[in-house]
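sorry for the late reply, my laptop died twice this morning and i had to redo everyting from scratch. anyway the thing you sent over, i finally got around to it. pasting the sequence first so we're on the same page, its 186 residues, then the predicted structure underneath. double check i copied it right bc i was rushing
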Amino acid sequence: MRFMTDALDPRVARTRRDVVDATAALLLDDGWDGVTHAEVAKRSGYSKATIYTHWPTRLDLVGAAIEQICDIAHHPPATGDLRNDLRTSLLDFATDLTDGRLDRLLAGVVERANSSEVVRRLRTRLYETGTSGLRSILEAHLDPVNVEPLLALLTGAVFVRVTFEGVPATEAFIDDLIERVLSGAI
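ok and here's the structure:
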């Protein structure tokens, strides 16, 4: 006797992919509040009943979308040149905040993190995924005691610049930031 599981059924896999893709696009386009079962149904082409069956709550939808976003995230490859690698990675981060609409995603997670353990885990997953490239670069060149503080200084400065100040993180800004942050650590 053969058992068919959801993982083997291509229809279930296609439904999951389509619904999670639609949810991720909604999350990045419209923020957390834009993700509703009705809107996901409209964008994905599946019925609300199907979506409710597999993702009973908005948090289930958002969680699946965030996991997918983290799973497909990529970072520029490191070359071994500390300043150049930091520059490339920080410029990539700044672009993700503006062009990739990562700012909306982060705002929704940060706003809700104190209300749910699930959202706190999603926040941690986003942070760890988003900073893994920079962390690897810093770990390859610096004393381990300096990695976390410098990571916070670098990513925090870019985040504030782009998100709160609404000013682009230019190459000149990134270069100056790197020199200022590294001057006390090397």
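The first helix runs from residue 10 to 30.
thats about all i looked at so far, will dig more tmrw
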